[in-house]
Automatic annotation (TrEMBL), chain A:
Keywords assigned: Cell membrane, Glycosyltransferase, Membrane, Transferase, Transmembrane, Transmembrane helix
Listed InterPro entries: LipidA_mod_glycosyltrf_83
Membrane topology of this protein: Multi-pass membrane protein
Record's protein name: Glycosyltransferase family 39 protein
This protein's record includes keyword Membrane: yes
Stretches of the chain forming a coiled coil according to its record: none
Species whose genome carries this gene: Sporolactobacillus mangiferae
TrEMBL record, chain B:
Broad class of enzyme this protein falls into: transferase
Domain Type II secretion system protein GspE N-terminal: 216-284
Organism domain of life: Bacteria
Domain Glycosyltransferase 2-like: 467-667
Protein species of origin: Sporolactobacillus mangiferae
Protein name as catalogued: Glycosyltransferase
UniProt key word Transmembrane: yes
Family from the record: Belongs to the glycosyltransferase 2 family.
TM helices/strands, residue ranges: 305-327, 333-357, 652-672, 684-703, 723-741
UniProt keywords, alphabetically: Coiled coil, Glycosyltransferase, Membrane, Transferase, Transmembrane, Transmembrane helix
TrEMBL record, chain C:
Keyword Coiled coil: yes
Lineage: Bacteria, Bacillati, Bacillota, Bacilli, Bacillales
Species of provenance: Sporolactobacillus mangiferae
Name of protein: Uncharacterized protein
Coiled-coil ranges from the UniProt annotation: 7-59
Keywords: Coiled coil
Length: 536, 770, 72
């Protein structure tokens, strides 16, 4: 056993290198990286390299953790420009987390007395599942979230065994808080976890010590356990809202701002895939089921094992069920309301939760009946392989997974072209700003992050996260703004701050702004001039 | 209001009747007592007369039958070792009488003298000139047969044979001498034991003494201490000393040389010796318990709070700061703020690291039930328990009960209840309880300072145990604590001088304050303290349940009677001498302070005590650094400074925060340049939360552990109150500001109150958990 | 006002009386202790004296029954 102690770490290191290489290959040579990933890197870039470096520049739309963790990597940016401009920093981060997640799982399997080869196959089927491998290499926040969920569930199953009980609870607490700082799905997941704690403690009220002390004891223990498990996440939420309130003036800014997910999904009703789903529960369920199916196959393994163990209608299984259903149910609700794009990545979590749970389940089976264990193990591996295959199939289907389809067919993707354009614009702007070191350029980083990342003269930029951005936007003339860069107001670009502030600015400019240059009918550069008359 | 008056009236009349009744009772009791004494005296006299008559009768009979007498004499002379047929074993007086060396009248006179002054009968007879020494010696040589002690007691009629056998069985398993076992089983009294011992060893027995005579004969205290002997009477040709364990010939010889007089020893019971010590050497012992540390290690004594150099130093620092403020107040404040922030940050981080260390399983020394059971009780040493108390006589019965619960052979306990001289009530209550003999009441003589450490020092001087522990009167130690400590000492390295048991509170359910206090202690003793010990830096000890090696403690000079937090101070001094302390997994439950104002007083005293201790040890910072090493030095700084400073600084920064949100004034952010801003923010957002969270988790941890061991005195319900910890911090801030205010406003008054002992009871609750 | 000071006065008296009562009770305790001490001392002495008396009676008997001539 001890011989194998270090192998998970070796495996993790190798996985890290593979993910990183793949990610860099995609980003650098194929110029494909999801916009969200770059946007998160850009957020941390503003913190370090904007005109006014401050932590608040990290922005209050995305959950802050992925960007926060990118900051230390970006410290190396002056020596390696691609870290930011191509979003490599984000890739390093996800590759790290992918590796860490696999180590966690590997170690959990070994700790739960699973045979080494079996564990190895198990982890391979997890880490090289096409979806997980892709997300370990593309700088999105999903991998971080997966890691924290994995951590949570493993700690939860440890807690079920009542070994290192308090430590497990603390682990759950911190993992949940970190998850909340990564993705908002943690809220429903946390609720399911809280419910599970209740179910377990309630189901044990007549066992062991609890039997002597009566209901008050059970209640107090439950409440205390919930505090430990949930307090970090609750506190994180409160602090997040407090910061939103203190800096953005609205405690729910992350929900309500122009740029938030909700705002961005407003145009969804016109979307051919999502449109029909809105307001129709039947369609919504179908939509969710279709996308969840590949990720639910391992759950079948747990179900079979439970049947073999004759433990189907037990508290533990009920907990797993709730945990599993939490995030998809939220998706059902959001889709029905028309507040979600229904990307495939929103449905992967049941897969992660089940896999984190399986070591526990397999150990129980092994303790109960050796022969059944071999059967259960085989079924698990088969279903994992099936899941990997079906996931790959779904990812190659444009209707089911537009994002992943794009990644696979990166050559047809529009991202490449837009990246090239951004580089061109950046070069041009750099030239202009270099010539006049007192010149300044205002642009909304919401759409312009790629350009900002490509530029050198960032100290002359006025971007959204700057504390004086609003002031300068409202009065560019007196605030000595030299240039204003705006995107063509198509789709989400209509939410661009300049377009919002000055109607049809892209088309007509304003009396204080004179068109300087148009870039491929995507971006326009205006020069600020003294207006003829003083009324705007 | 009228109702109030009526109520009071009822109370008054009730009190009046009670007082009258009590007065009558006192009269009645006085009369009864006198009558009783009279009767008893008469009875005793009657018996004595009977005995005297018996001697005379025997003499009469013998002289009536001279032939028979001759035969008897012959018999006694010839059969040196065997007693005559039908005779009980003969004592020396009876032998003298039967041999006709002395007549009944003379014998009775000797016996009377012995009753009054003690000593051996033979010696008295010689002194009176009735016989000469050689005759006595002959008789002794011929007839003396050393009996086993138990046998002696049975013969003396003090003990039944089956009782003796039972005691012997106990001795088999417990070990120790039979005398102490018989006493601990309450089968004989200490006086009876001493008498039997005296007979067994053919020495005299201390009967009565004249205090004035003893004072005249007084040996120098050092000599008395060395030989554990007190001179009772001294003349040119003889010095009689009282001892509770006979000295060997060599020691006698040495002593004789020192005082240049032949020495005779008489036996006294340990309890009588204690009284003697108290009467004869009270002044010296009092002096030792208050002045020893001050005299031997003035650098470690808090009898003086500020040294001259320290005052100069403070003035200089004050001037420098003032000058800097005048030069540029803004930069000065920014620099001060940066320094404080860095300090604050490092303290926070250190505290957190310590907690992490403390969660390790082996941070505490743990033993399971099997290991405790496997202890060979015969190997257990004598254990001294010091219980200082002041005006807490109401808890004495409970205390006795709690100490009785201790799973330790009673004959190896030396429990010393330390009572202040003016606490008459406690003295009477203790007497009325007829405590077993292993409880010893020690009365602490009047004298300044009247503090708990002084009482402990006084009790320690004559402690007989190999180990010594302090408990407070209301403490409830786990029954297996002493045994666990014994094991812990056994398996710890030689330089481990102190084992600390964990303290907690039994009244956590009483109110919010006791809940807070319980949480604080749970975290301190279960997590932080074990963590600190892992890192090995100086530890402020808990004021009770710290078990010491007696010799080491004495060598160190024991507690500083002038220090308010003598426990914290002792921790530093232990570390200075390279001794270590460890935590054993055994608890002592105490009563938490449940009233707000009391709590504030107590806490501000502790904070003052910490400042005092810091000032004492920082008189020579460089020397301290040499003595403690880098880690020890900074550890001590952390332990002593974090407690008073953090609560003092907290309100400043909290109010800055509030001010900033209220006004958004730019000058506030200007005080936090660059990275300091983020440091402060991280502290505010993360640090504070982590402390609350560890408080919650720590409490949960302790409760969880307890329930696993089927102990229910803490409830999971306690956990939720940890959310309110900030209230507790605010209270601590109030207390620390009070302490600081007193220090600034009247530093010298402060000294007086610190030394003057200004509250009702000893401030016994522990000061370490700040 | 009058009632108020009356209450105050009463309170003082009550406190005084309580104090006195406590002192008395302490005295009672002390007397009881004294009695117990005397009793214990007395019993010890008596026990010893009785043992001595028995011892002497035995000797007396021994003297009485001592054989007039000793034959080994």
């Amino acid at each position: 056993m001890s011989r194998n102690k270090h192998i998970p770490y070796y495996f993790g290191s190798i996985l890290f290198i593979l993910e990183l290489s793949f990610g860099i290959w995609m980003a650098h040579w194929n110029h494909f990286i999801p916009g969200d990933a770059v946007s998160r890197v850009a957020n941390s870039y503003y913190v370090l390299f904007s005109r006014d470096p401050h932590l608040g520049a990290i922005g209050f739309v995305w959950n802050p953790l992925p960007s926060l963790l990118t900051i230390p990597i970006l410290l190396l940016n002056p020596w390696c420009k691609v870290l930011a401009s191509e979003g490599i920093a984000g890739i390093i981060l996800t590759a790290l987390f992918a590796a860490f997640t696999s180590v966690l799982l590997f170690k959990a399997l070994l700790r739960r007395k699973q045979p080494f080869l079996f564990s190895f196959a198990f982890v391979l089927l997890f880490s090289f599942n096409p979806f997980l491998f892709l997300y370990g290499s593309n700088g999105m926040s999903e991998m971080l979230f997966i890691c924290f969920i994995m951590f949570c569930i493993i700690a939860f199953t440890d807690w079920l065994d009542e070994k290192r009980s308090v430590t497990s609870m603390i682990m759950i607490g911190f993992a949940l808080a970190l998850a909340l700082l990564t993705r908002y799905e943690s809220v429903v997941f946390g609720a399911a976890l809280a419910l599970s704690l209740f179910i377990i403690i309630w189901s044990r009220r007549r066992k062991g010590e609890a039997a002597h002390y009566g209901i008050a004891y059970t209640y107090n223990k439950w409440e205390a356990s919930e505090w430990i498990a949930l307090l970090p996440a609750l506190y994180t939420g409160i602090i997040w809202m407090a910061l939103n309130w203190a800096i953005m003036g609205d405690g729910l800014f992350f929900l309500r701002s122009n740029y938030s997910n909700l705002a961005q999904s407003e145009g969804l009703s016109k979307n051919p895939t999502i449109g029909p789903v809105i307001g129709d529960y039947g369609n919504t369920l179908l939509f969710v089921a279709e996308r969840s199916l590949p990720f639910l196959l391992p759950f079948l393994a747990v179900l079979i094992i439970r049947i073999l163990r004759r433990r189907v209608f037990k508290a533990g299984f009920l907990c797993l069920f709730f945990l599993l259903m939490s995030i998809p149910l939220m998706q059902v609700y959001m889709l029905h309301k028309g507040a979600s794009y229904g990307w495939l990545r929103f449905f992967v979590y049941p897969f992660v939760i089940t896999l984190a749970w399986l070591p526990y389940e397999l150990q129980k089976l092994k303790e109960q009946a050796r022969r059944l264990y071999i059967l259960g193990g085989c079924i698990t591996l088969i279903l994992l392989s099936a899941s990997a295959y079906t996931t790959g199939y779904a990812m190659n289907n444009e209707r089911l997974s537009p994002e992943e389809y794009q990644a696979i067919h990166y050559k047809k993707s529009a991202t490449y072209a837009s990246n090239l354009l951004s580089q061109k614009i950046a070069e041009d702007l750099d030239d202009r700003l270099r010539m006049d070191s007192h010149a300044s350029l205002l642009l909304d980083s919401f759409n312009g992050f790629q350009i900002i990342l490509d530029m050198d003269q960032t100290k002359q930029l006025i971007i959204t996260s700057d504390l004086d951005f609003k002031k300068k936007l409202n009065d560019p003339v007196n605030e000595h703004v030299t240039y204003i860069l705006v995107p063509k107001p198509d789709g989400v670009a209509a939410l661009n701050a300049v377009n919002e502030r000055y109607k049809s600015f892209y088309e007509q400019g304003a009396d204080f702004a004179k068109l300087d240059k148009t870039y491929s009918d995507q971006w326009r550069l205006y020069r600020v001039v003294k207006p003829m008359n003083e009324n705007e | 209001m009228n109702i109030e008056i009526w109520r009071k009236k009822g109370q008054l009349s009730r009190l009046d009747t009670e007082i009258t009744a009590n007065r009558e009772k006192i009269q009645q009791l006085t009369i009864e007592n006198n009558e009783n004494k009279q009767q008893q005296r008469l009875h005793v006299q009657e018996l004595q007369a009977e005995i005297e008559a018996a001697y005379e009768r025997i003499e009469q009979k013998l002289s009536e039958e001279p032939h028979k007498w001759t035969l008897i004499k012959q018999w006694i002379r010839n059969n040196a070792n065997a007693d005559p047929p039908d005779f009980p074993p003969l004592r020396i007086g009876e032998r003298l009488l039967l041999l006709g060396l002395i007549n009944a009248r003379q014998l009775n006179k000797c016996l009377e003298e012995q009753r009054i002054h003690g000593g051996r009968l033979g010696d008295i007879a010689v002194r009176f000139g009735y016989v000469d020494r050689s005759q006595i010696q002959d008789i002794i040589d011929q007839s003396f047969k050393r009996l086993l002690l138990g046998e002696q007691l049975v013969r003396a009629g003090y003990l039944k044979r089956d009782q003796l056998e039972e005691a012997l069985r106990v001795q088999q398993s417990v070990g120790g001498d039979i005398g102490s076992i018989l006493i601990s089983m309450n089968l004989i009294t200490p006086a009876q034991l001493t008498e039997a011992l005296a007979v067994q060893n053919q020495t005299g027995r201390l009967m009565a003494y004249n205090k004035q005579e003893v004072m005249n004969a007084k040996l120098p205290e050092a000599v008395a201490q060395r030989f554990k002997a007190i001179a009772i009477r001294r003349s040119v040709d003889q010095c009689i000393i009282a001892v509770d364990a006979l000295l060997n010939d060599e020691a006698i010889h040495q002593l004789a040389q020192i005082i240049d007089t032949p020495v005779t020893q008489v036996l006294a019971s340990p309890w009588e010796m204690e009284l003697l010590w108290d009467q004869i050497y009270q002044e010296e012992q009092l002096h030792e318990s208050t002045e020893k540390l001050k005299k031997e290690q003035p650098e470690n004594s808090a009898s003086q709070t500020f040294t001259f150099a320290q005052i100069i130093c403070m003035i200089v620092i004050g001037i420098v700061i003032a000058a800097a403020l005048l030069w540029n107040w803004f930069y000065t404040l920014v620099i001060i703020n940066v320094v404080i922030q860095l300090m604050y940050f490092s303290m926070t981080v250190t505290k957190f690291i310590m907690i992490l260390y403390g969660t390790k399983e082996n941070a505490q020394i743990r033993f399971n039930a099997k290991q405790i059971q496997d202890i060979d009780e015969r190997a257990l040493p004598l254990y001294t328990i010091l219980v200082p108390m002041y005006k807490e006589s109401n808890v004495v019965p409970q205390l006795v009960h709690n100490l009785d619960q201790l799973d330790y052979p009673k004959n190896k306990l030396d429990i010393r209840l330390l009572i202040e001289k003016d606490d008459i009530e406690a003295q009477e209550v203790i007497q009325s309880l007829h405590l077993p003999s292993y409880f010893q009441m020690i009365i602490i003589p009047e004298g300044q300072p009247k503090t708990k450490p002084k009482a402990c020092n006084y009790g320690l001087i004559r402690a007989r145990g190999k180990y010594v522990v302090i408990y407070d009167a209301e403490d409830r130690p786990d029954p297996d604590q002493l045994k666990k400590v014994f094991l812990a000492f056994q398996q710890s390295p030689e330089h481990t001088a102190c084992i600390q048991a964990k303290l907690n509170y039994f009244n956590s359910r009483q109110n919010l304050l006791t809940k807070f206090f319980t949480q604080e202690y749970s975290n301190w003793f279960e997590l932080l303290l074990p963590g600190i010990m892992q890192i090995n830096i100086p530890i402020p000890l808990g004021g009770t349940s710290n078990h010491f090696k007696t010799d080491v403690l004495k060598k160190l000079g024991a507690w500083d009677p002038y220090n308010v937090t003598e426990d914290a101070d002792l921790g530093i001094r232990l570390y200075k001498q390279n001794y270590t302390t460890r935590v054993v997994d055994s608890r002592t439950l105490e009563e938490a302070n449940s009233r707000f104002m009391n709590w504030i007083h107590q806490r501000s005293r502790w904070i003052k005590g910490y400042m005092q201790t810091w000032l004492v040890h920082m008189r020579h910072p460089i020397k301290l650094h040499q003595e403690l090493g880098i880690k020890g030095f900074w550890g001590a700084q952390f332990m002593l400074l974090s407690s008073p400073l953090l609560p003092m600084l907290n309100p400043i920064f909290w109010s800055l925060l509030v001010l900033w949100y209220a006004t958004h004034a730019g000058w506030i952010t200007a005080f936090f340049p660059g990275i300091i801003y983020y440091l402060a923010a991280a502290q505010l957002i993360l640090g504070n939360f982590l402390f609350i969270y560890t408080n919650i988790a720590g409490t949960y941890w302790v409760v969880h552990e307890l329930y696993r061991k089927k102990e229910t005195w803490l409830s999971y319900g306690l956990v939720r109150y940890a959310l309110l910890t900030p209230i507790y911090w605010a209270m601590m801030s109030i207390a620390s500001i009070k302490a600081l205010w007193q220090l600034i406003r009247k530093p010298f008054y402060w000294e007086k109150t610190v030394h003057g002992f200004d509250q009702e009871r000893y401030d016994t609750t522990k000061s370490n958990s700040l | 006002m009058l009632t108020y000071s009356a209450v105050g006065l009463k309170e003082m008296t009550v406190a005084q009386l309580q104090d006195e009562n406590r002192q008395l009770e302490l005295q009672i305790l002390a007397l009881k202790n004294e009695r117990a001490r005397a009793r214990a001392r007395y019993e010890e002495t008596i026990k010893k004296l009785q043992a001595t008396r028995e011892h002497l009676l035995q000797i007396e008997r021994g003297v009485d029954h001592f054989p007039k001539d000793i034959s080994k």
